[in-house]
Design a protein that fits this description.
binds S-adenosylmethionine, alpha/beta, eight-stranded mixed beta sheet, Rossmann fold, 293 residues, single chain, five-stranded mixed beta sheet, 23% helix
Length: 293
């Protein structure tokens, strides 16, 4: 298994990493330029022009490691990001700054996974069934649905699932075969196993730490084996797994070794998702493992 580096195709989305450094990222999402904290950006910034002309700035608050947004230009709080793969309809995602979070509704590095997913799903003879776990605002869900799949979208946050549904409606996918589930992913997996369900593809993006809908803490480290055992039970024999992981003190090979325990007959690809600035400097964002048959 070789370790790969994946980056989104610039022409497929309205995002650009403009610069990074001093613990921050300077990014362009659609028509908004923003600054957000990213403690992994330990180096010095290079772009001398754009840092002083942004629409929104997210800062760490003094108390409890939370975040706050400062509007630098009136009316800059809500806007749109577009993903447009040539084989799919254009997909628009609503972005917004929310209190206490530096996340705005899209993780742009995930566009590299969506390119792979599109290639995998478009043109399938029968609509593939996809389980999207920790599905957030529906990036992979909408890509899979637009590519002709039936999707089961699961996330613990009611408001985030509502946001994902809004994105589906805005893209004419209100009647697409998508099941919207607000549930703890581990609980949902157990229930689906009891029902004897099988999926042609499982996508999961567990956070290092999260909460179930009842507020019970979730940790990737504690749940990794349970998630993999669940995926093993729910995946159709020739199905694929796309696992994305972030903010964990592990290398991609660590994750791939565990995936290999559960999918010994699948081919594994593993690596890092990167965002690349115009000058070529990259910000590593996530680890991934893809298991295909
Ligand atoms: C950062 S997101 C994943 C990003 C997403 N894959 C994308 O590309 O847009 C992590 C998600 O996991 C959800 N989450 C956290 N703990 C959970 C749990 N125990 N069960 C279900 N979802 C959970 C959060 O609500 C959040 O939406």
């Amino acid at each position: 298994m070789t370790i790969q580096t994946l980056t989104p195709t610039p022409a497929h989305h309205t995002y650009q990493l403009l610069d990074s450094g001093n613990g921050q990222r300077l990014e362009q999402f659609g028509n908004r330029r923003i600054i957000r904290p990213d403690t992994t950006c330990l180096w010095r910034p290079r772009n001398t022009t754009h840092w002083n002309s942004v629409d929104l700035r997210c800062v760490k608050t003094q108390q409890g490691g939370s975040f706050a947004w400062q509007e630098q230009r009136a009316g800059a709080q809500a806007w749109t990001y577009t993903y447009h793969h040539p084989k799919l309809q254009k997909l628009d995602f609503a972005l917004r700054s929310s209190e206490h979070s530096k996340n705005i509704g899209i993780f742009p590095e995930q566009a590299a996974h969506w390119d792979w997913l599109t290639t995998k799903l478009v043109g399938a003879t029968q609509a593939p069934s996809i389980l999207n776990l920790f599905a957030y605002t529906g990036g992979a869900t909408l890509v899979a649905a637009a590519a002709g799949a039936q999707v089961c979208h699961v996330d613990a946050s009611k408001s985030t699932v509502a946001w994902a549904r809004e994105n589906a409606v805005a893209n004419g996918l209100a009647d697409a075969p998508i099941r919207w589930i607000v549930e703890d992913c581990v609980t949902f997996i157990e229930r689906e196993i009891k029902r004897g369900k099988k999926y042609d593809g499982i996508i999961m993006d567990p956070p290092a730490f999260g909460r179930d809908p009842r507020g019970k803490p979730f940790s990737f480290e504690d749940s990794f084996h349970q998630l993999m055992a669940g995926a093993q039970a729910l995946l159709a024999p020739e199905g694929f797994l796309l696992l994305n992981v972030y903010s964990v003190p592990l290398y991609a090979t660590h994750i791939a070794n565990v995936v290999g325990d559960y999918f010994p007959h699948h081919t594994l690809e593993a690596g890092e998702l990167h965002l690349v600035a115009k000058d070529g400097r990259t910000v590593p964002c996530n680890l991934f493992v893809r298991a295909t048959y």
